[in-house]
Specification:
With about 290 residues, the chain is of the alpha/beta class. About 55% of the residues lie in helices and about 5% in strands. It is flat.
Length: about 290
C-alpha cells in the first residue's frame, strides 16, 4: 500500500519533471498514464486515480523512494563536473561521446541528475533493456513517444520526433550490456538522427574492451559506431595508482561533506569508504539513522 506521504513525494517529483517535456500529453506518455489521469494527478488528486502499480512505476522512473530513504544531495566532485560539462557540450552541439571508467565514482548519479534539470534529455539503463526491441521502445517511452505499437512504427515515430525537437540527448548507461543487434540498431538510429540528436554512452572498462575486441575481430558495425561517438574514450580517474587513490578519497570527502550530518567525522567516513561512493552513502546512512 502506497502511503499518502509517498504519493505527495511522487506528485512533487512529477511537477518538477514536467518542465523537461513540451506538453502534458508527452509527459503523461513518458509516465505511462493517460492524459485524463495525468490531469487529475497534476491537480493533486491521489485517491483512486492510480493503482499502486502505477504509483510504483512512476516513483521508480522519477527516483522517488518508497521507504523514506535519505535524500542524496549532489556534490560537485571532479566526476560530476567532468560528466556534466561533457553532457552539456554534447547536447548543445548534437555531438556524441563515450565515457569508460572504473565503477563507483558517480557516473550514474551524475547522468540521472543531469536529466532531471535538462529538457529533452533522457537516461536509459541498458542493463535493463539489453535487446534491440526493448532498447528502442524504452528510448521512445522516455520521450513520451508511443512505444507499444508495431516496432517499425515505434522506430519511425521516434526518429521523426527526435528530428523535430530541440537538442535531444540520449544517455546510454551500462552500454556494455547491450546485445549485438542493439548496438547495430543504435548505429542506424544515430544515422537517422545525425546532427539532430546527441548520444552519450557510459560504462566501465569492460565497455571499452568489448568495443576494441569487436573492432579487432572485424565485427560488423563497431568501427563505424566508435567513429560516430567521437573515435575516443573519455576518462575521469587518473591512471597512476597513487594519484587515483587520492582522487577517489577526495571525491569521497566532497560527497561526505555535502551529505553527512554537521557533527560527523568526515575523515573517518573517507577512511572507511576507501574512496568508494556507495560505501560513503552506507556510512552516512548509518549516522543519520543512529
Amino acid at each position: 500500500m502506497i502511503t499518502t506521504e509517498v504519493k505527495k513525494s511522487i506528485l512533487e517529483a512529477i511537477s518538477l519533471n514536467r518542465s523537461n517535456y513540451p506538453s502534458d500529453a508527452k509527459h503523461a506518455a513518458s509516465l505511462g498514464i493517460t492524459t485524463s489521469v495525468y490531469s487529475a494527478v497534476k491537480n493533486g488528486q491521489t485517491d483512486k486515480v492510480l493503482s499502486d502499480a502505477n504509483w510504483i512505476s512512476i516513483a521508480r522512473k522519477l527516483g522517488v523512494s518508497l521507504r523514506g530513504e535519505i535524500e542524496w544531495k549532489a556534490a560537485k566532485t571532479a566526476t560530476f563536473q567532468f560528466i556534466t560539462a561533457q553532457l552539456e557540450f554534447s547536447q548543445q552541439s548534437s555531438l556524441s561521446g563515450i565515457l569508460c571508467d572504473i565503477p563507483n565514482i558517480g557516473k550514474t548519479f551524475t547522468a540521472r541528475y543531469y536529466v532531471k534539470s535538462h529538457k529533452n534529455a533522457v537516461y536509459v539503463d541498458c542493463s535493463q533493456v539489453k535487446t534491440k526491441l526493448k532498447l528502442i521502445r524504452k528510448i521512445a517511452s522516455e520521450f513520451g513517444v508511443d512505444s507499444k505499437g508495431r516496432y517499425a512504427d515505434v522506430y519511425d515515430d521516434l526518429v521523426y520526433y527526435l528530428r523535430g525537437i530541440e537538442c535531444p540527448l540520449i544517455i546510454l548507461d551500462e552500454a556494455g550490456d547491450l546485445q549485438y543487434e542493439a548496438f547495430l540498431e543504435l548505429k542506424a538510429l544515430w544515422n537517422a538522427t545525425e546532427r539532430c540528436c546527441a548520444w552519450y554512452m557510459m560504462g566501465a572498462d569492460g565497455l571499452k574492451e568489448k568495443i576494441n575486441r569487436s573492432i579487432e575481430c572485424k565485427k560488423v558495425g563497431y568501427t563505424e559506431m566508435l567513429s560516430r561517438y567521437g573515435d575516443r574514450y573519455s576518462k575521469v580517474t587518473p591512471d597512476d595508482g597513487k594519484e587515483r587513490d587520492q582522487f577517489l578519497k577526495e571525491q569521497a570527502r566532497v560527497v561526505a561533506k555535502v551529505n553527512a550530518p554537521a557533527d560527523a567525522d568526515i575523515a573517518q567516513i573517507v577512511r572507511k569508504s576507501g574512496g568508494g561512493l556507495r560505501r560513503v552513502y552506507t556510512e552516512i546512512e548509518k549516522l543519520k539513522r543512529a
